Amino acid sequence: MNIFVGLILAYLIGLLVYNLYKARKIRSQEDFMVAGRSLSLKVMVFTLICTWIGSGTFIAGAEYAAKAGWSSLWLPAGAWVGIAVIYFLAAKIRTFGQYTIGDILEVRYGKFARLFGALALVISFTTIVSYQFRAGGYILNVLTDGAVTVEVGQFITAAFVITLTAIGGMVAVAHTDLPNGIIILLACVMAVPFAVQFAGGWEAASAMLPASHFQTFSQDFGEHPLLKAGGYFLATMLLLMGVQSMYQKFYSAKTPKEAKTSVALWIVGTIVVETLVIVIAIYGAANHWKDIQQFEICKQLQQEVLTGQLPLPATTERAGTLVRQLADEGAITAAQARELGDLMNRQLAPLTNDPRRFEEGIGRLGKDPASIVLVVARDLAGGNAAGFIIGVLLLAAACAVVVSTGMNYLLSPSTNVMRDVYQRFIRPEAAPERMVALQKIFIVVIGLCAFLLIFIPTVLHSKISVLKYSYFAYTIYGVAITPALIAALSWRRVTRQGGLASIISGAIMVILLEIAVPAAFPQWMRGPAGSQDPFGVPGIYLALAVSLACLVVVSYLTPKPDAESLKSLFPEA
Predict the structure, then answer these.
(1) What's the DSSP call for residue 240?
(2) Were 102 and a residue from 114, 146, 440, 509 both cysteine, which residue would form a disulfide, CB within 3.0 to 4.6 Å?
């Protein structure tokens, strides 16, 4: 057995055993959903870090850092601002002491706001879970040197994450996050100097990567770089400010004071981890820039052959054209172009006479930028004893983020289904034992839906981008839920009608701009492939403007809320 697979398998088995042990303590619905409101400060800090630091950081964020450089910091920076805002609300959230954000939405906006909010959340979080499964596929593919394909790996990951979540709920999730969070923090801090040294030192990045990697707004941001950077910033900030997984953790804290203190420590840990992952990704890209470009070229060739645009015998010539195009654009140096051209000729030539061999072989060429942190981990582990330890630790951290984030975002929507739909509209007096049993069933159902979101595009040979999946999930949640939620907690004047209008209009606008328009009017899309927007303007701006306008205008056009409806969130009112 591959030594990396053996070590990581032992780690995952340890998590499973620990999960089963903690699951024995579950006695009620409150235990399953919010860990009996008993989480200590230490557990709170690490479970918050693990909830936010997922494959969106280790895969999507790292992929973007590898391709766009330092400007990729715009993506996580929005979350840092969002955490700062949440700091002032954490104690109030814990004092309110319910189970889901639907509890807050209903108090301020009524039962239909709770229902529509739950629907938006389930869509967003199911999408987030789906790309955790994809990230697990990348990890297993790298760990086994390609013996396990990404497609098979994502199936194995889905089965593991669904099983762990269904076993133990929040009790297991939060306590599993403690060792995972420690591993993530240690791995990132210790890996940076090794990754820089392996790439050739601090100057290696500027020597090997194009100038666009060192711009404030990368060329990869499309026609309007400033707007695109702001779009990424807003998407992560709005998701963080309203994400239910965090609120559910606040509900699980022992006291309001510990909930607030945990947020202060959480922002430090998040800034450290996300910045260090970007550093690792950039220096990994510097060491493998030629391999990354080869991967991108091969994906384009594969797509052109599959769609009939390119005859198979012409792939070698087409590859040469694409390499020269990259050199003309300044993406690679003349020396890199010569090396890449020779490499493509040697590796593609044996594949161009057999369609089946081409299909099996071309996907193995180059390095996928989405797995750059994993590639760095393998690089380090192949060195000296210290490098081996750091490399294995970094691979374990990647596994930890996928497992932890997958569990958190799978538990959360199942809680909504049970609390905001089943218990609120179908069976209000359901016994706690029945609630726990049904929630486990819904965890499996939602997990299967998440798997299908990634499995169907795999079968159809569609291009799958973790970054694109995460941006959609962040946007629909941030625009549909966050404005109404923050207003419910901080603005007495907001009305039921205003909050409901904001939730519905925000969700509709995101679906129109991110799904309907690209499908119906592709000629309106502008920007680089995989990062296009209607007329080059990120849809989050218009969607957020509509959501906020409905929130404010409708609230002022309708009667003020009465004092009784404000009492639970504004006791002083």
Answers:
(1) H
(2) 114
Residues shown for the chain:
573
Residue 251 has which token pair? Answer: 């509900």
- 92: three-class secondary structure by DSSP: helix
In which residue ranges of the chain is CATH 1.20.1730.10 found?
A: 3-217+248-288+374-459
Instruction: Count Cβ neighbours within 10 Å for each residue of 507-533 and write b for 16 or more, e otherwise.
Output: bbbbbebbeebeeeeeeeeebeeebbb
Spatial neighbors of 7 by CB under 8 A, at least 6 apart, are 392, 395, 396
What are the distances in angstroms from CA 530 to CA 161, 400, 481, 518? 28, 28, 26, 11
Closest CA to 472 of 236, 184, 294, 158: 236
* 428 SS3 class: coil
SS3 call for 1: coil
Over 50: is that where the pLDDT of 133 sits?
yes
CATH no. for 3-217+248-288+374-459: 1.20.1730.10
Beta bridge partners of 533: 526
**220 falls in which pLDDT band (50, 70, 90)?**
low
Single pTM value for the model: 0.79
pLDDT of residue 2: 67
> Minimal CA–CA distance to 434: which of 101, 32, 21?
32
Q: Which of 48, 27, 59, 31 is nearest to 470 (CA)?
A: 59
Helix, strand and coil content of the chain, in percent to the nearest 5, comes to 80, 0, 20
CB of 96 closer than 8 Å to CB of 569: yes
Alpha carbons 253 and 559: distance in angstroms, whole number: 36
CA angle at 395 for the pair 159 and 189, rounded to the nearest 5°: 135
Structural tokens at position 176: 């599993």
Is the Cβ–Cβ distance between 221 and 68 less than 8 Å? Answer: yes
H helices within 243-384, ranges in order?
244-252, 256-287, 289-306, 315-329, 334-348, 355-362, 372-381
In whole angstroms, what is the distance from residue 444 CA to residue 356 CA? Answer: 35
Low-confidence winner among 106-115, 149-158, 177-186 (lowest mean pLDDT): 177-186
Would you call 76 helix, strand, or coil by DSSP? Answer: helix
Helix (H, G, I), strand (E, B) or coil at 347: helix
